[in-house]
Design a protein that fits this description.
Blueprint (H helix, E strand, L loop, with lengths): L5 H13 L12 H8 L3 H13 L3 E4 L3 E4 L8 E4 L3 H10 E12 L2 H7 L6 E11 L8 E7 L7 H6 L5 H9 L5 E10 L2 H7 L6 E10 L5 E10 L8 E4 L3
Antiparallel strand pairs: 1-2, 3-10, 4-5, 5-6, 6-9, 7-8, 8-9
Helix pairs in contact: 1-3, 2-3
Length: about 240
């Protein structure tokens, strides 16, 4: 019997996805099920699924499974940057201390940062991110903006500091993340964050704005994080299709 290799599995699953056997939005069989189906090891299956992920056909989420994202592979460059799994791991690696919660009306300056209309109402949850081994040097300060309708999620955030707010919204309100848009800027630490971040005002920092979009591409959560220089590294991987 011919040995099944991971390129063979990739080719077969790609064809199955393209013909609609595994529709967009559905979950593929588990690694164990695919291993039995193809008569090969889980290592081979895992390598095949990683290849499908790099092609943009599927996404993989711990404790959920492998979800079909597209029927055809993406062309040109594909950027794999800060997947939701990566954000979850970041949350687990740091202690989150909620500093304050307030409902605000966005002014024009903040609206430009958030990419939303001025005068809109948001619930702002501000917190420090602290490495467990060094509580004197915070990794960053995060302001999370969500629709006021999700106010009941706040106590859960405070009680579960390692859980992403977006996960809570998805589980309790059924609003699922379809896309996360991420923008990175070099900034100076504003004066009001200098003391909590334990740095000098105006010192260099990295600002990351993440906009969480639902299936209709409507933003329901926006986070703005300021990372002092030398305390956080953002890594990305750019893949290029060979065809």
């Amino acid at each position: 019997m011919k040995k099944v290799t991971y390129p063979m599995v990739v080719k077969d699953l790609t064809a199955a996805i393209a013909c609609g056997k595994h529709p967009v939005g559905s979950l593929l069989p588990t690694e164990l099920e695919l291993s039995a189906l193809y008569g090969t090891s889980r290592h081979t299956i895992r390598a095949a699924l990683q290849e499908l992920q790099q092609l943009g056909l599927v996404s993989r989420t711990k404790n959920v499974g492998t979800r079909v994202e597209a029927r055809e592979r993406a062309e040109g460059f594909q950027q794999t940057l800060a997947s939701l799994d990566g954000l979850v791991q970041f949350g687990k690696a740091h202690v989150r201390e909620v500093q304050h919660v307030e409902e605000i009306v966005v002014d024009l300056e903040l609206a430009r940062t958030l990419g939303c209309p001025g005068g809109t109402r948001w619930l702002r949850i501000s917190s420090l991110r602290l490495p467990a081994e060094d509580l004197e040097h915070p990794v960053g300060w995060t302001d999370v903006y969500v629709e006021p309708a999700y106010a009941e999620a706040v106590p859960i955030v405070q009680a579960s500091p390692q859980t992403l707010l977006s996960n809570i919204i998805e589980e309790r309100f059924g609003r699922r993340i379809a896309q996360i848009r991420q923008e990175v800027d070099a900034v100076s630490v504003p004066g009001h964050l200098a003391v909590p971040l334990n740095v000098e005002p105006g010192s260099p920092a990295l600002q990351i704005v993440r906009t969480y979009l639902d299936a209709s591409r409507r933003a329901f959560e926006i986070s703005v994080t300021v990372h002092p220089a030398g305390r956080f590294t953002l890594s990305m991987l750019l893949n290029r299709n060979t065809e």
